[in-house]
Design goal:
The protein is mainly α. The chain has 3 helices and 2 strands.
């Protein structure tokens, strides 16, 4: 998962030219287990509550953000999007993911 979700996208970005744009999808569930209070993009992510896939997607977001932050003449432009189900409640919430979060919680608490 680390190779596919973190290292491969970094490799692609590293081979891109400065005038090129990489648009990538970010994490799917960085604020799992947030409880009854709504979360925002500014809230800290509790990496201990992430499954291996979500954790790898979060690491990808962090790695590509770090690349973007040190933007220079050789760095491509990067845009990362988080889906509406990532943080907080959305009218298009994917309720099909909720049962997996509950199952994980049952096994880990």
């Amino acid at each position: 998962v680390q190779q596919q979700n973190v290292l491969d996208p970094l490799d692609v970005a590293g081979r891109m030219l400065p005038h090129q744009l990489l648009i990538f999808a970010s994490t799917t569930a960085v604020n799992e287990g947030s409880g009854a209070h709504p979360r925002s993009e500014l809230d800290a992510v509790d990496e201990g509550k992430l499954d291996s896939y979500s954790a790898s997607m979060y690491r990808r977001e962090q790695a590509l953000r770090a690349l973007s932050d040190r933007r220079n003449a050789l760095t491509p432009r990067l845009i990362g999007f988080r889906f509406g189900t990532v943080v907080g409640v959305s009218p298009g919430q994917r309720v099909d993911l909720a049962h997996m979060a509950m199952i994980k919680s049952a096994y880990t608490t």
